[in-house]
Design a protein that fits this description.
2 copies of one chain form a homodimer. Chain A is 24% helix and 32% strand. By secondary structure, chain A is α+β, with helices and mostly antiparallel strands. In chain A, a hairpin with a 3-residue loop joins strand 1 and strand 2. In chain A, helix 2 (57-70) packs across helix 3. At the A-B interface, strand 4, helix 1, strand 8, strand 9 and helix 4 of A face strand 4, helix 1, strand 8, strand 9 and helix 4 of B. Chains A, B: GO terms for molecular function: branched-chain-amino-acid transaminase activity.
């Protein structure tokens, strides 16, 4: 694991790569009381030739610094941390599975470590990075999931922290998820406001595909309005779809009549589209599952069925997923893939 | 310190009172990533005769269990935990200062301790209680504070966790507080919705006193609508004021024409009352400061001045504070004061 201490007087200390082991934390440590914690999730892939790569790690470093600012934890030099993470991965490269869909999950974490029972900007912090081999999210083909359209609880609100990858966004979602599971749904579909705008799915960003009046496909995702996490997978899906739509880089099997929209979309619009047979697909997007197709939404006591392709994915998500995973694993060369070791 | 482990298979383990010392936490421990933490704040007082008391500790036990349910941490037998806390205080009673305004601050904390990088209900938890001597919040008389009427950030929202004493409610407030301090205000006045309803002050509940058309005093605090922390001091202020207003237990020097309202109150209403000379006082209420008078609110670029009494407190807060502190320290006998040791 990698560990770097910080304090308000001396700034960042010497980075230390050391054997994985427990942290010694005083019971008054601020993170244990006031939730001063943030993290990132990244994956390292190893190809057949043994080459190890990361996927768009600069985005994680940038977001991690934004998260730090939001809860008054120290910021850092993103490129320098990335070099240290690469060093850690090179040392741990024998842990990276080479099987298809496998990777090394990397978890950079930053916590407030001041020993002080008072609510204040921490004067001490610890940045640490741990790793764990992970298998594919869907080892036996895609399994579309059912969502519970959640109106009793929120994930985020304007003026809150939904746009940052902070620990505080996660603990409150566990009970709603448990309740959704009990009712037969895999995840919460977080709805916002009296219009019940769709925001996120569980801990993933969300996309909807609609057929427009002229027959074109519209790929819709909520805008980064302060409530939506700026996901790396979200940005990658949008970028691939936009480059395809603009004719800059056409993706195989993706309809050419694609329109990309970052806009609000309400449950009412989803219901109307469904009635009019204009709802094409709906999916979650995130680092863990990459793309997670949805086949059902429980909403105000009724179940709304969402079309899925015959292998679980729809006509828009499938070609985007293929390109995305190709770029992630390095099978499709791109500058999104950053070499850690040859 | 007191420590009790819990796991999903065996339930609560043997309580252990042991010397204060660091916790050994694996870097993957859930509280460090997903903020599965909640706490309470209580005070133990020691009187001239050496008698040690707690103030309404049953309310803390009840609220702590409610907090636990909200983030899927284990609940516990409140009376049993209270007996253990009393035992801890008896062992640490030499730490309780006897000077006026001093007390032993008690911090029960419950954290998720499962070693697992996944968002789920923790299967392991640790409940611990630590103590620290504290002096009076205002050692040299009351100093009224200035508040920054905060519209850029929120503390809570409907469907969120504002009504629970969870760590997640605190980290996001640090940056807004820092910004308020930079602008010359001591704390945030958290406003809600387009009406800018007043909700809380920093980490305290909030009360306003208005003169009504008929000359009566109205003591207003926002209702427990899911966004407001059900504070022990809040409840105590309301109870004392209501018993006085009903004639059940009159408090010395408190105007008899008191009306108690739990209702929403907007910044516009505050401004109008100020203009009409009907704004009597505004104060925060919480375990740390007990009552914290306010003399100024910065709101949308303007400063609104709030009347304060000549020693900082107003005509309603002063007599309530006197009764409350008397009951807390045991100087005024009441069943709110629970004996720990004679």
């Amino acid at each position: 694991m990698l560990a770097i201490h910080w304090d308000a007087v001396n700034g960042w200390g010497q980075p230390n790569i050391k054997p994985y082991g427990p942290l010694q934390l005083d019971p008054s440590t601020t993170v244990l009381h006031y939730a001063q914690t943030l993290f990132e999730g990244m994956k390292a892939y190893r190809d057949d030739g043994g080459k190890v790569t990361l996927f768009r790690p600069d985005m994680n470093m940038k977001r991690m610094n934004n998260s730090a600012k939001r809860i008054a934890l120290p910021t850092f030099h993103g490129d320098a941390l990335l070099e240290l993470i690469k060093e850690l991965i090179r040392l741990d490269r024998h842990w990276i599975p080479q099987e298809p869909g496998h990777s090394l999950y990397i978890r950079p974490t930053l916590i407030g470590t001041q020993r002080f029972i008072g609510v204040a900007p921490p004067t001490e912090a610890l940045l640490f990075v741990i790793c764990s081999p992970v298998g594919p999210y869907y080892p036996n083909g895609f399994k579309p999931i059912a969502l519970y359209g959640t109106t009793e609880y929120i994930r985020a609100a304007p003026g809150g922290t939904g746009a940052y990858k902070l620990g505080v966004n996660y603990a409150p979602g566990v009970l709603p998820q448990k309740q959704a599971a009990k009712a037969g749904y895999a995840q919460n579909l977080w709805l916002h406001g009296s219009e019940h705008y769709l925001t996120e799915v569980g801990t993933m960003n969300m996309f909807v595909v609609l057929r427009k009046d002229d027959g074109a496909h519209e790929l819709v995702t909520p805008p980064l309005d302060g409530m939506i996490l700026p996901g790396v997978t979200r940005d990658s899906v949008l970028t691939l779809a936009r480059e395809h739509a603009a004719g800059v880089k056409r993706l195989p099997n993706l309809p050419e009549d694609l329109v990309v929209s970052e806009r609000q979309i309400s449950m009412n619009e989803i219901k109307e589209a469904s009635k009019a047979n204009r709802l094409v697909e709906l999916f979650g997007a995130g680092t863990a599952a990459v793309i997670s197709p949805v086949n059902r939404i429980g909403y105000l006591g009724e179940d709304l069925h969402i079309p899925t392709g015959k292998d679980g994915m729809g006509p828009i998500s499938r070609p985007i997923w293929t390109e995305l995973v190709g770029r992630q694993t390095g099978a499709i060369p791109s500058d999104w893939s950053v070499v850690v070791s040859e």
